[in-house]
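Bumping with the actual sequence this time:
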Amino acid sequence: MVNLEQILRDLDLSAIAPGSDKLDECRFFLSALKSQTERQFFRWYLSAYLGATYSYLEIKALELYFSSCDPENGESVKDEAGLSVLREYVRVFQEKKRPDFIKTSGKAETAKKLYEIRKQNTHLRALPIMEGPVHDQQQQFLIGEYREKGIPAVEFCEEVQSMLDQIDAVLASV
């Protein structure tokens, strides 16, 4: 039998991060990479930023998919309005074999590019980063290894952050 009193005594609620924590983590790494002038360290901050953004989207999908519990039967209830907002940017799906496992993939162009770059960085190799022009006394970096196809890294990350902030703002209003 579960001893609820013991569980409540052992539970440290201060250990639970607030809902805004993952988005704050994204902002932290974006700020860090924007001020970085060393290519190697820039790559590391970019990797951390990509991981945080992906994590934000995955966690948000999970939260919305299992947003509440039906008091009648104990079944999970989806936040359909919230999922509708999130689905404008990413595909959200539940695995048949593992119904408690929610997965996302890119849908909007920015999200597709994010998932593609993050997948390369996580599963294939460290991201290739080229030095671009110096702008306003700040070294610019490009994602890629072909000079003509490089993606301006900070510009791309700002676009991703704008998307995440927009998702968060709309979700707060539904």
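The tokens above came from a reply further down the thread. The mean pLDDT is 90.
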